[in-house]
Automatic annotation (TrEMBL):
Lineage, broadest ranks: Bacteria, Pseudomonadati, Pseudomonadota, Gammaproteobacteria, Alteromonadales
Keyword Nucleus: no
InterPro entries in the record: LysR-type_TF_proteobact-type, LysR_HTH_N, LysR_subst-bd, WH-like_DNA-bd_sf, WH_DNA-bd_sf
Name listed for the protein in its UniProt record: HTH lysR-type domain-containing protein
Keyword rRNA-binding: no
Pfam families: HTH_1, LysR_substrate
Gene3D superfamilies per UniProt: Periplasmic binding protein-like II, Winged helix-like DNA-binding domain superfamily/Winged helix DNA-binding domain
Family label: Belongs to the LysR transcriptional regulatory family.
Superkingdom, taxonomy of origin: Bacteria
Length: 316
């Protein structure tokens, strides 16, 4: 119930009239006719009339006296119209200011990413991202390359408590409050230094290897190709950077996620055809469920997915 100097307007606080209906009334009150209001708002006079009738029914009071073509305001309508015009002018100024500020407002996205993924996957693409989204700034925080039982809890905690806006890792958190998108297929390729002769299935066990000790892909690959490689010929390390350097400097072979093709190119490493493996650890981006519809997060996720799709098309 709203008390004015001209009477009482009965309103249910849980069913306020629509902003559109109030906008129609403000236009009618200011211009003095349904016809003029219809022209200003780009609708028919009958639509204006329906909105006015609905508004009056919701408020429980008549706002306009309908006398032929003259639409005079009632005392209650006059009281409402003066304040309503001021409110809509304030809304228009607020919207314009927001749009103006939005053009220049910067949003910093804190991204958890390993040095390997930054160097060999995301880094070379950042120029394009910055050109497309000049108002978004990626602040990179180093995290492990692979998600594991040991680090999943702490990383999930950082996402849920806003310390990280997004997380880029192989594998993804299982927490329901976190949303994940798989960006790449978990395909692994066998690579060798260019100076090392290309192996065959018959002489694989004569070579030395280096493997990343954060997943079971090496064991799966070994079984898939029945290589029977002695563990004495395999050096296990904790990340791909160390594995690539050992492959370069010690002449070892290694399994490499296909999305790291740039690592092979930089290190004078070449793929050994016929020894690929569909792994279990595709590249994922993870965010808090409550922030998945935030414009900045949507832009980042969609851009990354677009990049992957573009790369895949170029391969075909």
């Amino acid at each position: 119930m709203i008390l004015t100097q001209y009477g009482v307007i009965n309103m249910n606080p849980n069913s306020l009239p629509s902003l559109n209906a109030l906008r129609v009334f403000e236009s009618v009150a200011r211009l003095g006719s349904f016809k003029a209001a219809a022209a200003e708002l780009g609708v028919t006079q009958s639509a204006i009339s329906r909105q006015m009738t609905t508004l009056e029914e919701q408020l429980g009071v008549r706002l306009v006296q309908r006398d032929n073509r003259v639409h005079a305001l009632t005392p209650a309508g006059d009281a409402l119209a003066s304040d309503l015009s001021r409110v809509f002018r304030q809304i228009e100024r607020l919207v314009k200011r927001t749009m103006k500020n939005g053009d220049h407002a910067r949003r910093t996205i804190t991204l958890g990413i390993s040095s390997e993924l930054l160097r060999w996957w995301l880094g070379p693409l950042l120029t394009e991202f910055n050109q497309l989204y000049p108002h978004l700034e990626l602040q990179c925080v180093q995290v492990p390359e692979y998600l594991s039982r040991q680090n999943e809890g702490p990383l999930t905690h950082e996402i849920l408590h806003g310390e990280l806006d997004a997380l880029l890792t192989f594998s993804a958190p299982a927490q329901k409050a976190v949303v994940n998108w798989r960006l790449t297929e978990p395909r692994l390729i066998l690579i060798r230094p260019a100076a090392v002769p290309e192996p065959t299935k018959d002489n694989l066990n004569e070579y030395k290897f280096v493997a990343v000790n954060t997943n079971k892909d090496w064991d799966r690959w070994n079984r898939a190709y029945e290589s029977k490689i002695n563990n004495e010929n395999v050096q296990f390390v904790n990340n791909t950077s160390m594995a690539v350097e050992l492959a370069q400097f010690t002449g070892r072979l290694m399994l490499l996620p296909e999305c790291y093709a740039k690592a092979a190119t930089e290190g004078d490493l070449v793929e050994v055809p016929g020894f690929s493996l569909d792994g279990k650890h595709g590249l994922h981006i993870s965010v808090r469920r409550e922030s998945q519809r935030e414009m900045a997060i949507v832009a980042l996720v969609n851009w990354m997915r677009h990049v992957v799709e573009t790369v895949e098309k170029q391969k075909r």
